[in-house]
Amino acid sequence: METTTDRTNGQTNAFNPNRSPLKLRPDQEARWNTFPVDQPLTFDQAVAIVNAARQKDGTRTDVGAGALDRLALVVAPEDGQLVVLKTEQVGTQLRPMGDPMPVRRTAFRQLCERADAPPEYISKLPAKLAHACMQYGLSQRDENKEKDGLLRLAGGELRAIVSSKYARLDDHMVLDAVDAALTKHGVRDVVRVRGLATGIGMTLRVTWPGEGVAVRSGDIIERGFDLLNGEVGNRSVGIAPCTFRLVCSNGMRRWTDGSRRLSHIGDPERLREAFVDALPVVINESKGLVDMMKVASERLIENLDLELGGLTQFSLTTGEAREVSRTVLAAHGVALPSDHKAWGPLLTERKDVTVYDVLNGVTAFAQTRTPDRRGEIEEVAGNYLATRTR
pTM of this prediction? Predict the structure, then answer.
């Protein structure tokens, strides 16, 4: 039994549903795996890591949800854990059927969306009130809403609730499709994996080590593609051009005309044909990213203060843009003061900073973020590069 200490009276109390919020199980552990520059992974080694992460997360099963208004939410009295039960109609009553399913964070957000309840707000309410709001929302019948769904489980825990039309294009299926595409084009044993994210979102960064290009002396850039997927309704299947900078392991990707994004709807077998067709196009477009980086390395910035402040136009927060500023200036031997209001003169007097330097400041900062946010910021870098080298 979980206990908490009330600091106002020194007493230790059990979980109190009238005061304490709901407890939720964590999602699959998110991890970005970066490997030594001289020890990239083979495709098979990368697949083994993805499979190991999957096994660690728990046995995967899928269960038809049935009528969503017959899902019962229960708050465990001993610790406040939110669980879901399927129920069946017996006479005039609904009775539980099957084992209770502890709810993970992503599944909680999806349940809240179906109940028309704001998840961030609900998660802060006392458990009893939060439970009542969610159960009421799920019980309402709306002709415009889907009436049933699919429950996705891992280790008996509810990791997602998705549409009954959801195509289960799971990581192992996506990897099999890419395997077939690489094999057909004769490059399966040539490519190497430079980065790998596991969790509710998978990313594989695949490059051609033998075709690196020097943007500057000793600054080698490899090109390739990023493979992305999500299994819990959070991400489509995607393949996009990427680059990898050997000197610092900075990565970047950009969605281009040749990129592919496939929603989790329809026949999963369409993956194989899509990847076979897309692979040579995406690889060719990755050459364009390297060419833009060459241009960026020679393009000096006239007003660095405006340039760095303008990064918020590319979906960086103000705080993130400031961290990128620190990173860029640190690479030039300058430590910016804690008071950002004093930065103006220090930035505007710099006339030796290039677009390539700022680009690398963004991608270096991306490495300090969570795997999902890292990928988003690496896309920011790609968009910034394209905009500033037109």
Answer: 0.90
